[in-house]
């Protein structure tokens, strides 16, 4: 009926409380597992080939210049210029050198800088 207050049974209320209480526990389990499985990756010594942690400057097929930093999955923010090492773009760039052309999907990108 319209206008009447919504009622919740004690069982429904208890279920809602359990679900709400489970959220922080789920988050804690997630972060504990992320910390447990984290791997420390040394800073790249060489800037001769693209690898994890590098910043890569690219010239796209249309002539535009773009720079990406290759980071871990949790750090990736493409709008800010950081991409995950498992992304299609990063996978196409890994192991390449300045002057190489990387291809992904139907796009080509020339590597013009590695830092």
Short key terms for the protein model shown above:
115 residues, alpha+beta, five-stranded mixed beta sheet, 2 helices, elongated
CATH class of the largest domain: Alpha Beta
| Global mean pLDDT | 88
- Please write the string of helix (H) and strand (E) elements: HEEEHEE
Biggest β-sheet: count, sense, barrel?
5 strands, mixed
Give the CATH H-level superfamily of the largest domain.
Transcription elongation factor, GreA/GreB, C-terminal domain
* General shape: elongated
What is the architecture of the largest domain at the second tier of CATH?
Roll
Task: Explain the overall architecture.
There is one protein chain. Helix content is 30%, strand content 24%. The chain has 115 residues and is of the alpha+beta class. It folds into 2 domains: 9-38; 55-114, Transcription elongation factor, GreA/GreB, C-terminal domain (Chitinase A, domain 3), CATH 3.10.50. The protein has a 5-stranded mixed β-sheet. The longest helix has 28 residues, at 10-37. The N and C termini lie far apart (66 Å).
Ordered list of secondary-structure elements with their pairings:
Blueprint: H1 10-37, E1 55-60, E2 65-71, E3 82-84, H2 88-93, E4 101-104, E5 107-114
Parallel strand pairs: 2-3
Antiparallel strand pairs: 1-2, 1-5, 4-5
